[in-house]
Amino acid sequence: MANKHLFHTGTSTVVRNEAGGKAFAFSPEHALAQYAVTGTFHGTFYADADDQLAKVQELAGAVAPELVAKTAIYCRQNGRMKDVPAFLVALLATRDVGLMLKVFPRVIDDARMLRAFVSIVRSGVTGRKSFGSAPKRALRAWFAARSPETLFRQSIGQSPSMSDVIKMVRPPPRNDKGEADAVREALYGYLIGKNVDHSKLPALAIAYEAFKAAGGPLPDVPFEMLTALPLRAEHWIDLAKKMTFGQLRQNLNTLFRHGVFADEAMIALVAERLSDPEAIRRARTMPYQLLAAHRSVTESLPKEIKRALGRAVEHAVANVPSFPGSVALCPDVSGSMHSPLTGRRGTATTKVRCVDVAALVTAAFLRKNEEATVLPFSDHVVALERPINALDSVVANTDLLSSLPSGGTACAAPLRWLNERNEAPDLVVFVSDNQSWADFKHDTTMDHEWNRLRERNPNAKLVLIDLQPYATTQVETREEVLNVGGFSDAVFDVVASFVTEGGRGEGFLDAIQAVTI
């Protein structure tokens, strides 16, 4: 059972949301969770990066440190987020050092997260620019826990670079048993630009330096270390064979330009790897990332690769539950949903929009719930150009829904549509940014329409999947109403628990509370 001290919720306050409409405020606990699983500290349609940062800091200060720790672990391990969990660990370093030391290795689990943590602390946004003894101890333990070869593999990336981090942290050249390590000592010197005896470096680093000097066999190093080197066609083929799933997904057009897919055997190999369900699971790839890959590949790419990406999307949403009874699916296609899912990031801004993910989630639910009614909406229920077929591919139905015309946002519109037709499904699922503003006739009109529907079906349940880092909802959480944030497939598990396993409306927070520290 959830800790009532951590997760106390009372009557929600009616406030103005970021769009100016009336809404219910989340509790600080729920709002922190919402920001953690959707926030990227980049500008959204209604809020800039500084607003997000300040809000997360405010919310983290308003809840128990234990909840901050559990939220950091959950949003990293289940939500697969990066910047916000690193920020929460940095905040813990100023509030509860003991908790920070416990969660650090579970959240700061790779070099990308390490660099994020270091960057956040050194920026001073948490109130201090120095690491302090405990965070520095955690950082040094991070280095000691990894082999020299692993550290070499993870030494890519900038701002800060691994060289910068080593200079700041000064990790002793010892392993996790405290034993002196000559290979590690040579590697640390090498990474910060010192002249070292290359024969003492990890074997992988030696092979890399040999390849740079004289060519020869391609070393098994990260793709990013090799792209600036003069590679021949056979090198690119070898590289494609050794790429991780994520590297393969992100570099298909590059491989095509370098002639890799002129080889029929390579087409078959890459297609098989891309559509391998186990590889997708191990890579922890989010469904929307596979959708982005499917949309971004050049038209000249072999059709087998495109089809493999389509199958990959299907595998990525395979844990979507089927629901008993009648179901209505309501994707938000309004104007604000056309903003980038992970915020505005300059040249690094994703091409995947919130509306694409709303459409993807809807298409995934439809695949497992073929008789569901689909009600896309903006300031009204938007008519489909053609009937949607549950047996079509998830990608095809995603494209259909995400291409619908947009408008204002009235989250009550699908419920009003159902009420006008005297329909009362057993389950209604919304995928939205919850920024309703187009109907000012009533306070929280969606809540009013939901109560009307429940009069005809007292057992009906409502799921509100929120894709953006805001702190309000159109229907407050209660026994039959689940508010859940995020865009990883962990959302499907929370929804399944709520609908089919007798879960509570507080299931989102229950999932975080279940995290052990």
Could you please describe the fold and organization of this structure?
- With 517 residues, the chain is α/β, with parallel strands linked by helices.
- 48% of the residues lie in helices and 6% in strands.
- The protein has 24 helices and 8 strands.
- It has helices at 28-38, 49-62, 65-77, 83-95, 97-107, 111-123, 133-144, 148-153, 162-169, 182-191, 203-214, 233-242, 245-250, 252-257, 264-274, 277-283, 287-296, 303-316, 354-368, 394-402, 413-420, 445-456, 490-500, 507-513, and strands at 14-16, 22-25, 327-331, 373-374, 427-432, 461-466, 472-473, 481-485.
- Strand 1 and strand 2 form a beta hairpin.
| C-alpha termini separation | 16 Å
Question: How many alpha or pi helices?
Answer: 24
Count of DSSP strands: 8
Instruction: Give the CATH level 1 class of the domain at 323-513.
Output: Alpha Beta
CATH topology descriptor of the domain at 323-513: Rossmann fold
* Full CATH superfamily name of the domain at 323-513: von Willebrand factor, type A domain
Please tell me what the overall shape is. globular
User: Which residues form runs of ≥5 with pLDDT under 50?
Assistant: 1-11
| Biggest pleated-sheet summary | 5 strands, parallel
Known CATH architecture of the domain at 323-513 = 3-Layer(aba) Sandwich
- Rounded to an integer in angstroms, the radius of gyration calculated over CA atoms is 25 Å
Proportion in helices: 40-55%
Rounded mean pLDDT is 89
Strand order, biggest sheet? 4-3-5-6-8
* SSE-based structural type: alpha/beta
Strand content: 5-15%
